[in-house]
Amino acid sequence: MASVSVTVESIAAGGDGVARAEGFVVFVPRSAPGDVGIVDIAMRGSFARAEFLRLERPAPSRVEPPCPHYTIDKCGGCQLQHMEYGAQLDAKSGIIRDSIARIGKRTIEKPEVVPSAQQWRYRRKLTLAMQRSGARWIAGLHPYDSPRKIFALSDCPITDERVVAIWREIMAQQSMLPIASTLRGAVRLHGMDGAGNANATFVLEGGDVWPEAPRFFEAVPSLNALWWIPEKKRRRLMQQRGESNALGASFAQVNARVAASMHDYVLARVLSHEPESVIDGYSGAGELALALALSGARVSAIELDSDASSHAALRLPAGSTSISAKVEEVLGSLLPADVVVLNPPRTGVDGRVTEQLEQCDPAPRAIVYVSCNPATLARDLARMPRYRIASLRAYDMFPQTAHVETVCELVPVSA
Predict the structure, then answer these.
(1) What CATH number corresponds to the domain at position 4?
(2) End residue of a domain, out of 26, 59, 92
(3) Model confidence pTM above 0.85
(4) CB-CB contact of 173 with 221 (8 Å)
(5) How far are the Cα atoms of 188, 197, 299, 353, 407 from residue 250, in angstroms, in the given order?
(6) What is the pLDDT of residue 44?
(7) Which range marks the domain in which residue 6 is found?
(8) Backbone torsions φ then ψ of 314, nearest 5 degrees
(9) Shared domain check, 269 and 372
(10) Residue 41: per-residue pLDDT
């Protein structure tokens, strides 16, 4: 171990600050660009990770985090609460640019990051880990430096207060949860019902038997639907009030206002190419596919989740189709198309997807790639040298965290 003074230069993809000492990189959690402080470092090859032992000169962008869990429990749910909001946006812009340069081997300017109108209480979904402690359950999140531990969550200031209140109702009825050593639960809001009440779903994962599910549901009146995913089995709808929400177990916008803004932007970028045919890969519940189809395009929506795919199929007009499959397994049979939309999970697209887009003749007029992970976006861009970046815009879907959504519009290099 050696104590050294370091200056934080930027923010890395996971939210740590990046500093340098004697030729190697030091990642400093909960730091801000411009911070100067003392760290104890232990070498791990060409880099180290170390917290500040003493902050000698704080950066101008530092603020006092409002959430006590962030400091007392080292909550890993947020990474940037200690930075003022403008600095968070700048950090995310830098993360995107650096990822595309380092991994994608493409030079771009720092992109615009569209801010969230709500910096707090925006989350309409909260997933908590649950661990049995004697006869009681602890429901909470993990410390960033100890991912196997769970601390009891009392509040989450980035989460809608209605979601937090429902979690409190759930924990008040914890004696009726399945017998298990660990569980995982998620509360989601899906808008409002006709009476103006929140439409909420609870999804519980874990356990083998749950005889108390009906009584549990009756004891939590704020819930509209109760889903359960038993160990190594598919999810099932256990109880409901009113009309069933077949997609309640999987699909809910975490930040509805930002999601709507990004949806409109993606729709505009696709329609700017005046497509007659569009492939919408990883199409979810089909919101974008439906909007494109209503604009006159012939849409092939691909979604692995069978419930979501069926939901989209019922809504799409004649001439457009919804296919329940892996994108990489059916994309080749649907190409060529005027525009291809890709909205994959954090892992990015399968290598077969980029290979088929590289080889397709004729090439799509555009690929609109919506990414929640700059690193996998950059990797996938490196796999598609046939296309250049026509536009790139980011959206701050998750203020106070290091996560960022990116919309990358690609066109053939020859275009």
Answers:
(1) 2.40.50.140
(2) 59
(3) yes
(4) no
(5) 9, 21, 23, 24, 22
(6) 64
(7) 1-59
(8) -70, -25
(9) yes
(10) 81
